[in-house]
User: What shape does this take?
Amino acid sequence: MLSFTEAEFRIERPFKGSTTASNLSQEAKDVAQMLVNHYVHIQGLAVSQMLRKSVETRDWMNTIEPRTVRAVMKRVVEDVTAIDVQVGQLYEEGTRKERSSDSSKRAISHSTARQNPRSNWSSYAPSTLDDSLLSNIHKLFSERIEIFSSVEFSKVSILTGIVKISLKTLLECVRLRTFGRYGLQQIQVDTYYLQEYLWRFVSDEHLVDVLLDEILSSTIYRCLDPVLMETSVVKAICERG
Assistant: This one.
C-alpha cells in the first residue's frame, strides 16, 4: 500500500527503496522527540526570562532586609505547577527516585548546610585570596549536571528539564551581579522557597538541591558583606510568604 501510494502520487524519498512500517515508526519517534525537546526548551526559556529579568533589574547592593519571598519566585512555582498539570494530561508520571528520609532535615538546613566554611571566606583579606584560584577550586568540587540532556516521554522527565534550564539561568545571572548583605539574604530566602516546592516536580530532588546550593554559593562569592540569615528566620519568612 505504501509503495502504491508513493508511485501514484509520485512521492520522492531521500533514499531508495520502498517505505516500510519500521521506517515510518522511527521517523515518527524522531519527530516526537524533537517536539518534546523543543517544548522543554521553550518552557524553560519562558521561566528563565522571568528569573533573568528579576535579577538584572534589581539593585542588589542597596536592597532592604528581606521580609518576604520575591513575587517572581512565587510566579515560577505557579507556572511550573501549571505546566505539570498540562503535561500530566498527555504523559504518564514516569520514574522518580524515592525521596530520602532526611529530605525534610536537608530542606530546613539547605541555606546553612555549609555556612561555616563559606563564612570563613570573609576572614580573608583581598590580597591573600586569589579569586581565580578560589573559583577554579569551587568549580572542581561542584557536581556536574547535564542541563540540555535528551528528554524522555514522561511528565517527570519533561518537568525536570524545564526546572534545570530555569535554575541554570538563575545561577548564571547571579554570577554576573554584585550583592550586599541584604541582597545575599534575599537570594537565601528565595532559594529556600524554591527548594521547598520544586523538588516534587523533578525525577531526583538532589538535582534541585545541587543547583540551588550552587546559586547560593555563587551569591556568597559575589557578596561584599557575606552574612547569612538564621535558618529559623528564613523558614519563618517562607512560611509567611
Remarks:
- The two ends are 63 Å apart (CA to CA).
- The chain is about 60% helix and 0% strand.
- Residues 104-130 have pLDDT under 50 and may be disordered.
